[in-house]
Amino acid sequence: MASTAHYYGQRALNALVDRARDERFSRVLLVTGRSSYERCGAAARLAELEMFASVRRWSDFDPNPSVDDLRRGLAILRDHDPELIVGVGGGSPMDMAKLLCAFDGVGERAVESAIVAGSPVEFSSRTLFLVPTTSGSGSEATHFAVVYIGSDKYSVAGDGLRPAAVALDPGLTLSGSAHQRATSGVDAICQATESLWAVGATDRSRRSARHALGLLLPAIEPFVDDPTPQTARCMALGSHLAGRAIDVSKTTAAHALSYGITKRYGIDHGNAVALTLGQFVSDHAVLVDRLQPGLDRASHERAMAQIVDAYGRALGTSDAASVGREINQLLGRLGLTSTLMEAGVRSESELTELAATVNVERLGNNPVVYSTDELVGVLARSLGR
């Protein structure tokens, strides 16, 4: 597995252009957001690519990339035949750039079955560069991407999805709306929190997650309200570290429940994850007799103590139960939906339907074992009434 080169700061994009020139790439495909590419300043700074390469840009895909979007992208890939793909934007453009690498050469009719088969993508013949313009998804640091077939979400993974280079310039994140900064930043906080308690966590991933929380929690409110270069640096580095952590540990129950909340109630992804995160913090601190088989209790309790400490330093909480309350209050201060009731959940049957969207057998990465009925209880406590 080749290592990823990381370029940081105001000249990070210049370094990418220099590398593309040095490697003599003659055809480049830019996969970008529809309006954010120009607004954040990346377009002007990557224009130099056109001095030595034929550059084509593509941004015509949904925020949640679908198999139909992917087919259109693969047609463009075949037509332009780039040596280099550059994903510039939030999680969706970067995921789409990864998906193009993953399914390069797969026939149009075979794409859907290849996604469903879920075989690891170990190699790509295209070179991939990634440029995050939001602080949240951490997609530039992970070896997986998400694609939808209808309403069903699939994860595509493998070392072939890792970029050859990443440009991390906090200045690119300053142009987004306050709402975008809030929901993306909250997603990074949720990833770091879940990574600390995940069954798949390692000492290394937990170090990244702890560092991420230490950067993200104190910075997110000023970054949303009145962003400065300093808070942008904290959020950019924090979200990147959260991505590195989740790349190893993977997500847990709060993320699993979020997809149904987003689909049914239109709540943005990061916000949707955070709606149940506080209840899971409370549960995971006390339900130590319901840990997954083989999970070390002492290790889990250390992780939970670190989570409570990180939130305590930033938000003034003193125990796991107060972390849940403070997360809801933080969401409100950030202008986000703070409870499931505010999201539009009104009945017990809706809670049952949301819980049923999660296959509990696939929650083996969550430290505490939950039945579907117990997930309903988590959702009920997240109503906020």
What would you note in describing this structure?
This protein is an alpha/beta fold. Helix content is 53%, strand content 11%. The protein has two domains: 5-172, Rossmann fold, CATH 3.40.50; 178-381, Up-down Bundle (Dehydroquinate synthase-like, alpha domain), CATH 1.20.1090. It contains 16 helices and eight strands. Strands 1-8-5-4-2-3 form a six-stranded parallel β-sheet, with helices on both faces. Strands 6-7 form a two-stranded antiparallel ribbon. α7 runs antiparallel to α8 and α8 packs antiparallel against α9. The mean pLDDT is 95.
In short:
This protein is 53% helix and 11% strand. The chain is α/β, with parallel strands linked by helices and 385 residues long.
The strand line-up of the biggest sheet is 1-8-5-4-2-3
The Cα radius of gyration reads: 20 Å
Work out the strand percent.
5-15%
Give the averaged pLDDT, no decimals.
Answer: 95
Which parts are unreliable, with pLDDT below 50 for 5 consecutive residues or more? none
Q: Kindly report the CATH topology of the largest domain.
A: Dehydroquinate synthase-like, alpha domain
Please identify which CATH superfamily of the largest domain we are dealing with.
Answer: Dehydroquinate synthase-like - alpha domain
Q: What form results from the Cα inertia axes?
A: globular
**Under the CATH scheme, which architecture of the largest domain would be assigned?**
Up-down Bundle
SS field, number of helical segments: 16
What's the main sheet like? Answer: 6 strands, parallel
GO biological process, one term: antibiotic biosynthetic process
Protein name: Alcohol dehydrogenase class IV
Domain Fe-containing alcohol dehydrogenase-like C-terminal: 182-382
Organism: Ilumatobacter fluminis
